[in-house]
Amino acid sequence: MAVLSWIRRHLLAFAALAVLTLLLVPNVVVAVFSFNDPVGKFNYNWARFSTDAWTHPCGSPGICESLGLSLRIGVTASLIATVLGTMVALALGRYQFRGRAATNLLIFVPMATPEVVMGSSLLTLFLMLGIPAGALAILIAHIMFCVSFVVVAVKARVATLDPRLEEAAADLGATPAQTFLRVTLPLAAPGIAAGALLAFSLSFDDYIITNFNASPSSITFPMFVWGAAQRGVPVQVNVIGTVVFLAALLFVIAGQVLSNRRQRAV
Amino acid sequence: MATQTTGDLKLSGLTKEFDTFTAVHPMDLVIPQGSFFALLGPSGCGKTTTLRMVAGLEQPTAGRIHIGDTEITDTKAHQRNVNTVFQSYALFPHMSVLENVEFGLRRRGDKNAVAKAKEALELVQLGEVARKKPAQLSGGMQQRVALARAVVNRPDVLLLDEPLGALDLKLRRQMQIELKRIQQEVGLTFIHVTHDQEEAMTMADTIAVMNAGRIEQLGDPATLYERPASTFVANFLGQSNLLKATVTGPAQNGEVPVTAYDTALTVAADHVPDGVKEVWLGVRPEKLRMGEHGGPNRLHGTVTDVSFTGVATQYLVRMPWGRELTVVQQNDGSNRARPGEDVTVSWAAEHGFALDASQAADAGVEEEG
Which residue among A9, A50, A175, B215 is least enclosed by CB atoms within 10 Å? Predict the structure, then answer.
C-alpha cells in the first residue's frame, strides 16, 4: 500500500519525466553522435569517440556555406517579418478600418496552406514576375510566411494591453512617437520577441518552400542536410545541430531568467 | 510659469454626436479656476464624454473649449496642459511608481523631474514605494499614484474620471477627504466625474447634474439638495417624497397655498416655479416629522415599515390614497412608532419644494439605487 500511494503521489512527476525524456532523446542522440567517428559514409552506428567533427566543423565541403546562407536568410527574414508583422498586429489590435476582418482571415492563409502548394505556387509567381529562383526568392517567401506567425504572436500580446495606457501617455504630454516608443513598444516587446524567435526558427528550419525556390548556388542548411542524407551524412551536421539546440536552449533560459528578475524587481 | 495659460475653463456649445445618438447636447459651462467641480449623473449621461473632450481624447462634433483666453478645441491631447486620473488608473506597468510620476515632467524636459516626482509622491503619502512597480501596490495606493502622476504636472485643469469607483467604501471615504485636502493644497481646478451623489456632495464646491447629455441643474451641493429644479435632480440627489398637488392661489406672507389629495398645504413662495399650477410637491424624508411639531403641513397615515439604522429610524407611512411616504427621524431618544400605528406626519412650508408636474415623478429614481 505504501508503495502504491507513493507512486500515486508522484504520478505527475513520472508523467512529466516520461514526456521530457521522449522530447529530449533525439537531441541527446544528435549530441552523442557528434562525437562519433563513423565507419563508412553514414553516421548511424557508434564506432569510436572522436572530437574531429567539433574541431573541424566546416570539414565537410559546402556545410558552412549553407549554414551561413541559412543564418543570413533567417536573420533578414525574421527582422523584416517582425517589423511588418508588428505593424499589422498593432493596426488589427488597435484600430477599426475597412477590410479589418478580411485581413484577420488572410493572415491565417499562409499558416493553413500546405507548404508543397505554397512552395510550388510561389515558384510560379516568381517566374512570372521574372524573379530568379535563388536567395532573394527564398528570402521573400520566408518573409511572407513568417509575417503571419509574428502577427499572431504580437496580436495576442496587444489584446491584453489596456488602450487607456496610450491615452494616458498622450494625456501626460507624450507625442504619438513618444507614446509608441515608451509605452506601446515596451509593453508589446514580449510578444514581438516571441514572434521574432518563432520567425527565425521557421525560416532556418524550412525545407519544402525553400527547395522549390532555390537555385544550385543557394543551398540552405536544411537542403544541405537533405542532400547529404542521400550520400552519407557528415558528422558536422550533428555538431551544428547540437550547437543550434544549445543556442535555442540558452535563449529560452535567458528569457526566463530575465522575466523572473523583472517580476521580482522591487 | 509664464507660458502657462491659466484661467477658467469655458465650454461653449460643446457637442458630441456619435453615429446613433447624441452623447452631449450643446453645452455651455464655465468652471472657475481653482474650484472643485463635479459632473454628476447616471452612467451614459455624457459626463465622461464631456471629460474626454476636455482632455483632448475625444473630438467634439461642435463647440469650443477655452482655458482662460486660449482656445484648445483643436489641440491634441499631448499639447494640452490638462491631465486625467483614469478610472482604471492606467498606470504604466513596465515602469516604477517614480517613473510613472516623472513621465509627464520628462515629456516637457523638466530638469527637476525626479525631485518634483518624489515631492508629489510625498503629497499622496507614498514616498516609500517609489521604486516598486504598480502591480505590487494595492488598489488604493495605485489610485494615489495615478493622482500624483497627474497633479505633479500642475495642469490648468485636473480631470478625475470616477477615480474612486474601484475602491471599497471605507477607502473611498478616506480618499474623498484626501482628494479634497490635496485640491486645497495645490489649488488646481479639479473636475470630478462621478455617479455617486454622496461623493459629489462631499467634495465639490459646485455640481452639475447631468442627464441624457444635458445639464439638468448647476449649483452648490446645498442648493441642489434643498431646491432641486427637476424631479430628476430631486430623486438622483438623495430621496424625495413627491405629492401631486395643485396651486390654489397667489402667495401670502411668502407662502403659496396648494392642495394635495384634498388637504390644504403650503410651500415657501420662492420654492415654487413661476406660472405653473399643477405641481409635484416634494419633501425630503428627513424634513418630515412624526407628530405635529414639524409644522403646519400635516398628513395622516399608517406606519407600514420601521427600519432602525443606528443614527436614524426610517419609516414608511401609507397615505389614505395608497402611496407611501418615507420619513427619516434622528435617533434623538424620542419614542419610535410601531408598524400599524396611525400617525401624523408634519413639515414646515420652507422645507417643501414644488416642481412642474409635467415631468415624470420617478425620473432619476432607478439610477440612485
Answer: A9
